[in-house]
Amino acid sequence: MELLLIGLLLLVFIQDMKFRAIHIALPVVISILGLYVFIENNFDKSILFYNGLFLVITLLGLYLYLSVKNRKLTNPFNSIGKGDILFFVAIIPYFSTANYILYFITGMLFSILMFFIIKLKTRTNLVPLAGLLAFYMILLKGVFYAVDLNFFETKLI
């Protein structure tokens, strides 16, 4: 299962870097795989709710921020891609709530740093957010595998 997940994350990374878009099937399959592992391990179902709630609150905050900044109601999908949001939804089953929030925050920081590096070589202003976050998750999986930790079960904060 882990190798399949890493393969899917790698596809997200490659597609997003190349096309600045991902195929809808990738987050769907990542989500199905995550739900299967989540249910198989008999994790508390409320975690899915709380992770989803965090994502909704974050997107609402983005909506409010953009609306205040632009002084009119602004669609956040003009600033963040649908594939990026689908990716955030797809990875919900892979993290406990605290670890999902930590991944979200550190993943955004990682993406900003990586985008500045990418910006040196390209002229686009489109951030391959889902791809960078997928790459970040692969890196974390590698580190966690090396030190025998689990995203979900280990309390990182």
Task: Furnish the topology, listing elements before pairings.
Blueprint: H1 2-19, H2 25-40, H3 46-70, H4 82-90, H5 97-119, H6 129-146
Helix pairs in contact: 1-2, 1-6, 2-4, 4-6, 5-6
Helix/strand/pairing category: mainly alpha
Radius of gyration: 16 Å
Quote the beta fraction: under 5%
Q: Determine the mean pLDDT.
A: 93
What proportion of the residues is helical, as a percent range?
A: 55-70%
Specify the biggest β-sheet.
none
Count of individual helical segments: 6
H-E string = HHHHHH
Q: What is the global morphology?
A: globular
Number of strands: 0
How many domains, as an integer?
1
Report how far apart the termini are.
26 Å
Model regions low in confidence, pLDDT < 50 over at least 5 residues? none
Describe the structure.
- The chain has one domain (2-146).
- It is built from 6 helices and no strands.
- It has helices at 2-19, 25-40, 46-70, 82-90, 97-119, 129-146.
- The two termini are 26 Å apart.
- The model has no long low-confidence stretch (mean pLDDT 93).
Task: Describe the structure concisely.
It is built from six helices and no strands.
Output the keywords.
157 residues, mainly alpha, 6 helices, globular
